[in-house]
Design a protein that fits this description.
Strand content of chain A: 5-15%
Largest interface: A-B, 50 and 52 residues
Radius of gyration of chain A: 20 Å
CATH class of the largest domain in chain A: Alpha Beta
Order of helices and strands of chain A: HHEHEHHEHEHEHHEEHHHEHEEH
Strand order of the largest sheet of chain A: 1-7-6-5-4-2-3
Oligomer: homotetramer
CATH superfamily of the largest domain in chain A: Type I PLP-dependent aspartate aminotransferase-like (Major domain)
Chain lengths: ~350, ~350, ~350, ~350
């Protein structure tokens, strides 16, 4: 049994089926094809943004790098939670593009509108501000790296404070499907409140690929050339688009295989969470999504390792260690049963 | 009928079949899995380099960017043909990483060992050389952007001159399969003569992905972190590796589906080339591989466009234009028949 | 005798005198002082641009790097003469900031409006243009690296073509004083025709420093922070400004020590040029400014070396070599007499 | 009266005198001259490192950027105090070169060997370490941004821990003269313990310029080209070198004008510190060097402002604010008397 992550199975069966169907067809390169166009239109409709720029990239770190470098002016930095993926786990990809990451203390992986407001205000009240990297945008993850969620109200407040200071709000949606499935926040809400975001594929059912969305693009932005320059454009762009085109088929968000697959993961994760709580385990974050974190002793961790795989989240502290169990659209409920039995 | 390029079909049928077989299995992330290990071992064996570093990336521009930035010291530039992909069609991805591209006049897309020798020698004889970007490596494409090929002897000479000047030789193998199929140069030859190269997937039968090879890596090179920092690492790395693992199955290079698929493309391209020559068309380059370039009038180009698609290679010169027909592992021989009938 | 360059003497005597006068005074840092303000006002008046942004930087390569990276969008390249300083002699400083240098064939160091127009037009007529680095600005040097000059009419044509294509025109004025002294083109002309430029100090009489000018800056451009981020801001910015404040004192350009010092250099250079021509030397470029290039045999070059220093411009071709004699604001006329005697 | 900083006077009188003496002489460019050679030799002798690489740059931020980008491999980050100059006041110059700044909690501006050891050890014990920016060097300031000092023992411990982990130790000596004057740590000690450092000029008596030192350079390091590529090389390099050549004249460090000028600043700063303490002011850091920080009420700060200038260090906290008084080699003792009277 494997609970390391949500990117262990190849892809949603509907995508495999679509691949078979397409195998004798030919499509033009670099996203100029009809399937890419169809996928873009589905995303625009779900976002309620008919003019949105939509491009399909390969992975999460790449998408963050491309988008942040697109949204910032060269001398600006990106404000984020200190636990944000870009702050820690991207090997300096943001700095590679010349930008400073400006981490704020996080609470369960989240930052607040008030923190952002304070940071920007304090920045401009510093007598030396012209010598200091200015906050040029805000980066959040939904769900966060700890599986927690921003409420609609929190997102609205973050959006308002960003607009007050004229800096874009960007949402890293590597696991966005699980957030959509766990709340009633819609893609249209996200598109209304954020200046850019991506709809995660890799962790939510595709084989690879993320859909980058700019709800209200400026004219002549040359986003295509920008993407290519980062090495992020692939020749068979339609193979990425096709995966989103397949998973986002449906009249409404809730009718899509994307949403439904993620709902399954949430159901299984909640069963596991309840069992953990019932058995008295220490859950450092109360995650409503598909990632469940548990603090255990090193010997317990060792014991688990004999039966299954999980993700060790951080270096141990003393003889305690925090581990993560992740469910996904592909999780077998019997595996969750067996895991619960082992607790 | 579509002859725009060799990246129009989804992927080799054996890959689709393998995907089906793997759909209920789970693999760990970032290339730490058993399939990635198997694919690496096959490549090491074909290259006759048991210690080779092998990593799987997403696309050609990305791989060039990652590899060139890995091979060069920060202040060095990369010598290449003026028609080289990195010099023109990568939107400045090499400059994005801080390196100057140093183009040499090319003959049918190729540069010679003598040119490289002259360039390096002249560089160090310039009284102002410390103020000038030093040639830090040589980049070649095999086949070239015009479908032409370096002979084994030419490769040996380039390799020798690079080693004489202690600068690495890097080979962009976006279409390497077609070069292997059109000559008796082997992967072991490439690995013996080059300091780094990649085995192209996207244009030779995979859905996406390229296999970057460093035949004799230095210890502690942190190539993994380097890749991640360029946004070039995907979570489900095993899905890329799996495609190479499938196409490179076989006791020898010639027994692999990779090689055999490319042989098919060459056969069809040679049929087309003969027909073009027989009918008196002007072929600006005598390409022995799957890309065939033809100079036609604008009205002929227009006429072709009514029946099929092709790639217009450059802006027209007067009322003449050079167009490209590409075959691939997936080309239907009947399409070539029909194209020949249209000539 | 030293004719290597125009940057061999410490600085104009008026600057040394001003330093003495200021030695017990104190000024605030980073250009916030009254002398910097005075120097900026003088430059604005000479440029007839009361709102111009003026900043004082340390050297020419630095100023080119800072200005080009400021004027270009991240994915754009800079069009210039193939002999342009940024294309060759800056060790890749432009590429360091991520931009491709796009060289055009040059005639006596110059490019024409027609060439620029063709380049931009051809770019957008290439079917693959979105994959190619777009021309985002034009860089010229006045005088050029060969001492030649753009006429007012040529500058007007270049300016017009840049405005037609909405790309900025930037003028590298490392030796601008010598161009001003050799023509009746004024700083107001330069400011009217260029979108950015710099007034060279180091080669025209200051100890160090260049004055970067943006005639019509956009609001909120954060140029100060941009400069600092390139390591180009020095704490005692007023010491740079003070040198321009001293050399640009005067009611009109022609009344300034800056202009007059450069006039002296031109006078001496013209005496030398006439002597070279009279004695039948081969002058590859007919330079009207302070740099005079002569093609000589290696043995002549050797013979000169016994009596004086000069700059060898390029690697020898066969037994011929091009050397440069430079005069400056500080050239002793007796040295020119002695050099003429040696010819 | 001006106590804002130590960079308000033009330069040490001996430098002005030397400039006068040199005004009719000519020197070759880019540091190839005899004065640069002389200055290098003096620094090598004082450092007891006859093979040291010594280059003269323009300012502190530039030198940090050039040196850190030289010492790090492309994917590595630089460990420093959270209050370190590179972490805050350089507008992202380090990130501009692609490197992440890795700040540690600081105590009076300092970090300890134990902190560095923990950081490196923890890094490699993180199961995800290959995805995280590795600590590639350590940056310290001496004196720190708060005027405090590392003791010889603390430097030795930092050096030892860096060598244990094979990462270089780099010392930012923007105000190094004041540290040398306040302790018995010598340049030879610094050169023995650090892998690179710079001897600050701008804040210690020169008009501009810093002397970058690599005690034990590797062969073929192309440091010159590296500097040029950062726009950090000026044509009249000898004017920078000349200032160090003048201030470092003397048989021993303590005999140099550089040392003696800084001693004067320390004497005056200690008089001020004693007066502040005697009158019951709150000194947040007990600085033994030329920067003295005092916490005052906003109304006191306002009152001071009527008589003199100082540096406001940070945004106010409530109605309290920390301000800085800086002395320098040029401080008039009567000004300190007058300031003490105002307390």
């Amino acid at each position: 049994m494997h609970f390391d992550s949500d990117y262990m199975n190849i892809c949603h069966p509907l995508i495999l089926q679509r691949m078979q169907e397409l195998q004798d067809q030919q499509f033009s390169g670099y996203g100029t094809d009809s399937i890419s166009q169809s996928a873009r239109q589905k995303i625009r409709a779900l976002c309620n943004c008919p003019e949105a720029e939509v491009q399909f990239l390969c992975g999460g770190t790449q998408t963050n790098m491309v988008m942040i470098n697109f949204l910032l002016r060269s001398f600006e930095g990106v404000v984020c939670a200190e636990s944000g993926h870009i702050a820690i786990h991207e090997s300096g990809a943001i700095e590679f593009t010349g930008h400073k990451v400006l981490p704020l203390p996080a609470k369960e992986g989240k930052i607040s509108a008030e923190q952002v407001d304070d940071y920007v205000t304090t920045y401009y009240s510093d007598p030396n501000w012209p010598h200091i990297v200015p906050p040029g945008m805000v980066y959040i993850t939904q769900p966060t790296e700890y599986g927690t969620l921003y409420s609609l109200s929190e997102l609205e407040q973050l959006s308002a404070v960003c607009r007050k200071h004229s800096i874009p709000l960007y949402l890293d949606g590597a696991r966005l499907g699980y957030a959509l499935a766990a709340t009633n926040i819609t893609l249209a809400d996200i598109a209304r409140l954020c200046d850019a975001f991506y709809i995660g594929g890799t962790k939510c059912g595709t084989m690879f690929g993320e859909a980058a969305v700019i709800p209200h693009p400026k004219p002549d932005h040359r986003f295509f050339t920008h993407i290519k320059r980062h090495g992020a454009l692939i020749a068979k762009g339609w193979t990425t688009a096709m995966q989103f085109d397949t998973l986002l088929e449906g009249d409404t968000l809730t009718a899509t295989p994307y949403y439904q697959g993620c709902c399954h993961a949430i159901t299984e994760a909640m069963r596991l969470r309840k069992a953990l709580q019932d058995k008295g385990y220490t859950l450092p974050y109360l995650s409503p999504t598909n990632q469940q974190f548990v603090e255990v002793s090193l010997s317990q961790a060792e014991e688990f390792r004999r039966h299954l795989t999980y993700d060790q989240w951080e270096p141990p502290h003393g003889n305690r260690v925090t581990i993560r169990f992740a469910t996904s659209w592909a999780t077998d409920p019997h595996d969750i049963d067996r895991l619960i039995d082992l607790l």
